[in-house]
Write a structure and sequence with these properties.
This protein has about 400 residues and is an all-alpha fold. It has 17 helices and no strands. InterPro entries: MFS (IPR011701), MFS_dom (IPR020846), MFS_trans_sf (IPR036259).
């Protein structure tokens, strides 16, 4: 790499720490609680706007500020996990997140709401500190299953955050939800304090060197490029569906947003597939799972296009979510095995690619809807999956040739 190898080299490993089920589940719960904070605001936006009359345009920036903050946190904070002892870093970030949520609950103005939302987004990336730590602690033959379990917790946080926020805000107001948030976060901190072991930092590199090394990792690791490209396209497909679901239900079935919310609960089936996919990847290798996941997601779009009913949407969303989670866990299995000393930086690149894919999928689906409504959305969603499948197949063939040579 371009940076000084002596500063970026792997440090001697401490004796392996057994990652038991209790610790794995605690990490899964903490991931879910952390990631949920970037989704609480979505069902509460109307109530926030009502609290600041005349500032609708400003409060409307809250979800965007939160997502941009999360993207910034991926770039600026996640690489620190390779430099700083991970247990301490996770505790510091959770504590700061709890304080930021208190400030958000007490926000006196619309602009304060936007700024504190961005800070919450930045600090909520602690979930992406926990996942590579779990991969580090897991035994190699159990790494896939461990990642799957922790990712199940993260998925639960995403799926149920809106439901919890909507219920609490409807009965007690939006400030109450952001008041509950710190209690959950500090609870997660206390839970992890009872089970999380200390880690050994993997590099002595300065922070600026860590950031510069991201470009080197991207250039030198073809499997990182393949995994990131594949998952970005699959997440683009996933986001295309969820971006346009509400409009599709309203236009073609005369159903409201509350029904769209129920589809999120149906998608919780992905919680079940993530550990299963991880165990299968441990036994048969992750590449088979990734290929199968692409085929399953492609099948979901065929169902969406050809089975024009609510039953078809339900069947399709189950397939879509199963494929998305299976590929995500398996691609993480691949990248975390590449360079143990750079797992957090690998995660920064991988998750950043997914974030860009989500933006591409949302924009593409919106354009497709304007052109030819739902059939065009199905075409572009399936097209993203086809690109992912082609990229995965090409990468798998290249890897096979390299191993034979």
């Amino acid at each position: 790499m371009n940076t000084d190898p002596s500063r970026l080299s792997v440090q001697p490993h401490s004796p392996a720490v057994s990652l038991d089920l209790r610790t794995t589940l605690a990490m899964a719960v903490a991931c879910g609680i952390a990631i949920a904070n970037i989704y609480y605001n979505q069902p509460m936006l109307g109530l926030m706007e009502a609290s600041f009359p005349g500032a609708t345009a400003i409060t409307g920036l809250v979800p965007t500020a939160t997502q941009l903050g999360y993207a910034l946190g991926l770039i600026l904070l996640i690489p620190l996990g390779d430099r700083i002892e991970r247990r301490r870093l996770i505790f510091m970030q959770l504590a700061a997140l709890g304080v930021a949520l208190v400030a958000l609950a007490l926000a006196p103005s619309a602009w304060a709401l936007v700024v504190t939302s961005a800070v919450v987004g930045i600090l909520s990336t602690v979930a992406q500190q926990i996942v590579p730590f779990a991969a580090e602690l897991a035994e190699p033959h159990r790494r896939g299953a461990t990642i799957g379990t922790v990712m199940s917790g993260l998925l639960c946080g995403i799926l149920f955050a809106r439901t919890l926020a909507g219920f609490v805000a409807a009965h007690y107001g939006w400030r109450a939800m952001f008041g509950l948030g710190p209690l959950l976060v500090f609870g997660a901190l206390l839970l992890l304090a009872t089970v999380l072991p200390k880690s050994t930092p993997k590099t002595q590199a300065r922070y600026s060197e860590l950031l510069r090394s991201l470009a080197d990792l991207w250039r030198e690791e073809p499997e990182l490029r393949r995994a990131t490209a594949v998952q970005a396209m699959l997440f683009a497909s996933f986001s295309a569906f969820w971006t346009l679901l509400t409009l599709h239900l309203a236009r073609d079935y005369q159903l409201g947003a509350e029904v769209a919310g129920l589809f999120g609960i149906i998608g919780a089936g992905g919680v079940l597939i993530a550990p299963m996919a991880g165990r299968f990847a441990d036994r048969r290798g992750p590449y088979a799972v990734i290929g199968l996941s692409c085929v399953v997601m492609l099948g979901s779009w065929i169902v969406f296009a050809c089975w024009g009913s609510i039953a078809g949407l339900i069947a399709g969303v189950i397939l879509l979510d199963f494929g998305q989670q299976g590929s995500l866990v398996s691609n993480q299995h691949v990248i975390y095995a590449l360079r143990p000393e750079a797992r957090n930086r690998m995660n920064t690149i991988f998750m950043g690619g997914m974030f860009l894919g989500a933006a591409l999928g949302s924009a593409g689906a919106t354009f497709a809807w304007q052109v030819a409504r739902w059939p065009a959305v199905c075409a572009i969603g399936g097209g993203f999956v086809a690109i992912a499948l082609a990229a995965h197949s090409a990468g798998a063939r290249r890897l096979a040739r390299a191993q034979q040579g």
